[in-house]
Amino acid sequence: LEDLGLAMAIRTLALDAAARMDLNLDLDLTEVPLEMPPDLEQCLYRIAQEALANVLHHADAREVQVRLSEDKRLVTLTITDDGRGFALDDVNGAEEFGLRGMQERAGLVGGALDVASSPRHGTTVQLKVAIPDD
Q1: Rounded to an integer, what distance in angstroms lies between the CA atom of residue 86 and that of residue 121?
Q2: Within 10 Å of residue 41's Cβ, how many Cβ atoms?
Q3: In this predicted model, what pLDDT tens digit does every residue of 76-88 receive, in sequence order?
Q4: For residues 70 and 88, what is the distance between their CA atoms, to the nearest angstrom?
Q5: pTM across the whole model
Q6: What string of DSSP letters covers 43-95?
């Protein structure tokens, strides 16, 4: 993160994931402000990493979209796949741990994580977090 910046680090994650599983990748990454605190950058990166790992291990997807944007100091990270999806009520084991871990990470930086999925309709993981003014 320190060397590449957040957008390039997420780009590298996404390109690697797409190459490993032969996924069509749609990237839309905006460089976020340099004054973002390191813990916030780390949170965004780790959630992107976990969401992409879930696509690789569980989704059986053909396409994945990765979006990173910033508007009025609100950063939004969205990762969407066209895979098998799942019923949120049926999550257990490692999947539950991964989703809970992402929720906890988001909470530590004051962010909101939303996971939307249903069987045969893919999954969207979206994190919204405000960049502090200090």
Answers
A1: 8
A2: 19
A3: 999 999 999 988 7
A4: 28
A5: 0.91
A6: HHHHHHHHHHHHIIIII--SEEEEEEEEETTEEEEEEEE-S----GGG--HHH
